[in-house]
Amino acid sequence: MSKQFIQSPIHSGFGSQTTAQEVLGRLSLKGKVAIVTGGYSGIGLETTRVLANADATVLVPVRSLEKGAAALKDIPNTELIPMDLMDPDSIDSFAKRFLATDRPLHILINSAGVMATPLRRDNRGYESQLSTNHLGHFQLTARLWPALKRATGARIVSVSSRAHRLGGIDFDDPNFERKTYDKWKAYAQSKSANILYALEMDKRGKAHDVRAFSVHPGLIPETNLGQDLTEEERGPKPIKNEQGRYVSNEQNAVFKTVEQGAATSVWCAVSPQLDGLGGVYCEDVDIAEAVPADSTRPDGVRPWAIDPELAARLWKLSEDLINIRFTVD
Questions:
Q1: Tell me: the pLDDT tens digits for 300-322?
Q2: pTM for the whole thing?
Q3: How far apart, in whole angstroms, are the C-alpha atoms of residue 326 and residue 319?
Q4: Any residues with CB less than 8 A from the CB of 279 and at least 6 apart, and which?
Q5: Which of 32, 116, 186, 230 is surrounded by the most beta carbons within 10 Å?
């Protein structure tokens, strides 16, 4: 039986220092099929490694087959298929190849993303962070829907960010066609979109036993996500202490390893603790707390990212932008 959407911690027993492997424990994923976008670098690569080593078959979309093959050469049970999230035809081609195998899709982890990039646009003229982080994943999920439904118990995980607290969706000008481009506002918009999408996806999908979650992985210095940032633009700075662990030069900022950063995604993808739940934003391997819009806390989820009316509105906007009707019947 489905439980009501409730954005409140369940006290999972895990925490900010839990690793993805610790979340998984001895759970076998034999017979399960997963797709992990961004699954050949950073926390996506660790997510792939942990799932594949638990005997799941993990498909990894890659822009470069050469780079993907090099990253995954020591990981079993993986398959590489070309795909570019900013190219709608590429997404359709990937989904068509997967659906042709007639396999169910038990886990879809939308982990790929870009952050605070200079103004770039895809071939449709859409701003690159919205295009990559949200619209590409929205289209991918729509195309893979038959396989998700067939899995009888699929989970979709969208990797968001605490940066959603910097702002929500500008429904009047989502692609910065009229207002001045602000790369952090664009990033925040795309990450708020990830959370709203999971909320609406779960609402529509749960009748088919498909549940959706969004996650903040944490602050992880050992990835290339911030490759477009200057040193001055970076937020909390990672500093290694005498034990070689990353700490921060800012109060209340906690850095994670890649292994810890992948933990919440893996938890949302496989944990029985979340059976019957969905639509929630998670962090530190638990459901996050809902906090007021004016909260100065770095954690928690803001109201504009968990508003059901905004979630439904974003779904419609996304359908209009990609010119696809995403129905789940």
A1: 999 999 999 999 999 999 999 99
A2: 0.92
A3: 7
A4: 5, 198, 199, 201, 202, 203, 211, 212, 213
A5: 186
Distance of CA 225 to the CA centre of its chain: 13
> 87 vs 131, 176, 291, CA distance in Å?
9, 19, 36
How far, CA to CA in Å, does 73 sit from each of 79, 126, 218? Answer: 11, 34, 27
Residues 213, 157: contact at Cβ < 8 Å?
yes
Cβ distance 309 to 319 under 8 Å? Answer: no
Buried b / exposed e over 170-183, threshold 16 CB at 10 Å, is eeeebbbeeeeeeb
Helical ranges in 108-262 per DSSP H: 128-130, 136-150, 183-205, 258-261
Q: Which domains does the chain have, with CATH numbers?
A: 20-219+261-322 (3.40.50.720)
187 is catalytic: yes
Q: Token pair for residue 245?
A: 């662990």
Q: Cα separation of 57 and 63, whole Å? A: 20
Please pick, among 187, 197, 246, 281, the residue that the annotation labels catalytic.
Answer: 187
